[in-house]
């Protein structure tokens, strides 16, 4: 299974496109203090776009701080190019200009994520980062969709199941869970106990049903007729033209001559009639077969979808 890592926001790369070295250093310093380590600075639009291409080629989309007034290119045109390459990119526009409410709306309407007024204050950056953290966008759409696809068939699911399906550790899963919860997609419920493979602990197990006599899997639900007189018990279909297959008498009055019982099974292979199906489990990971008696029962946090 494909592995992908859910980065914390602080693990994200940051690209600063800012012509003033002083502002660039200040911004970098603030972001460092907020926990960001991978920060790249460019002094003009052209270099910024190149850097953006290089970073995205490694499979990650950086958080972009873009100066509104660059010497070589218009900030809107840079932003449009970045958005063209990666529509999910978050661009934070910095500007020293006194901005009216209208022009801020303009920047946002053009696709900027946020607007950062100069002089840049640590508090404001902190605020933006906090907002970002609380957004669904931290989880890539791919990951979000995977969770939804994998678990949408169930009204509830466990942390263990999700981590096994996604092939992730609990630490990697936690940000996804937190995100889904803060977006009111799921809610935490009681602990879920699940049947797991005794060999590999996997909860992806299939329940298998068998005939208790021959262990075959070819059986169907049948109505059973018991003929009181001769004691014959067999399927309804074996009483052709209402004749008992054992004594060949016609069964006449229900409750007097015979009785019926639903919820029986008839094996198509060995003809056994049985009320209880033999069931065991197959681990879908390591192919181990085991009975309920030998199964492991594992508990983990439970979650339910909010719909
Ligand atoms: Zn297994
Ligand atoms: Zn009979
Ligand atoms: Zn059988």
Keywords summarizing the entry:
disordered N terminus, 15 strands, binds zinc ion, four-stranded antiparallel sheet, five-stranded parallel sheet, 307 residues, alpha/beta, 29% helix, Rossmann fold
Overall 3D form: rod-shaped
Overall residue-averaged pLDDT value: 86
Structural class: alpha/beta
How many DSSP-defined strands?
15
What name goes with the CATH superfamily of the domain at 9-138? Response regulator
Ranges where pLDDT stays below 50 over 5 or more residues in a row are 1-6
- For the terminal residues, how far apart are their CA atoms? 29 Å
Distinct helical segment count: 8
Q: Do you know the CATH architecture of the domain at 9-138?
A: 3-Layer(aba) Sandwich
Give the spatial strand order of the biggest sheet: 2-1-3-4-5
CATH top level label of the domain at 9-138: Alpha Beta
Which series of helices and strands comes N to C? Answer: EHEHEHEHEHHEHHEEEEEEEEE
Main sheet: strands, sense, barrel: 5 strands, parallel
CATH topology of the domain at 9-138: Rossmann fold
Give a list of the ligands.
zinc ion
β content, as a range?
25-35%
Helix content: 25-40%
Q: Whole-number radius of gyration?
A: 32 Å
């Amino acid at each position: 299974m494909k592995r992908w890592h859910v980065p914390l926001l602080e693990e994200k790369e940051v690209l600063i496109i800012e012509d003033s070295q002083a502002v660039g250093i200040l911004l970098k310093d603030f972001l460092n203090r907020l926990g960001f380590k991978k920060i790249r600075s460019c002094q003009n639009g052209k270099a910024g776009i190149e850097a953006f291409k290089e970073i995205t080629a490694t499979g990650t989309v950086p958080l972009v701080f873009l100066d509104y007034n660059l010497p070589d290119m218009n900030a809107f045109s840079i932003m449009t190019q970045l958005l063209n390459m990666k529509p999910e990119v978050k661009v934070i526009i910095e500007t020293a200009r006194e901005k009216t409410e209208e022009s801020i709306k303009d920047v946002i309407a053009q696709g900027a994520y946020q607007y950062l007024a100069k002089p840049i204050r640590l508090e404001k950056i902190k605020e933006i980062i906090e907002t970002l953290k609380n957004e669904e966008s931290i989880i890539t759409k791919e990951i979000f969709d995977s969770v939804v696809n994998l678990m949408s068939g169930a009204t509830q699911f466990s942390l263990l199941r999700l981590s096994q399906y996604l092939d992730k550790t609990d630490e990697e899963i936690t940000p996804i869970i937190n995100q889904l919860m803060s977006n009111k997609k799921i809610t935490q419920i009681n602990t879920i106990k699940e049947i797991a493979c005794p060999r590999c602990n996997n909860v992806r197990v299939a329940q298998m049903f068998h005939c208790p006599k021959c262990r075959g899997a070819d059986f169907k639900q049948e109505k059973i007729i018991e003929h009181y007189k001769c004691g014959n018990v067999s399927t309804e279909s074996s009483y052709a033209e209402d004749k008992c297959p054992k004594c060949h008498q016609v069964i006449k009055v229900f409750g007097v001559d015979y009785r019926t019982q639903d919820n029986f099974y008839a094996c198509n292979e060995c003809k056994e009639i049985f009320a209880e199906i033999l069931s065991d489990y197959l681990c879908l990971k390591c192919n181990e077969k085991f009975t309920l008696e030998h199964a492991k029962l594992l508990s983990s946090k439970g979650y339910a979808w909010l719909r």
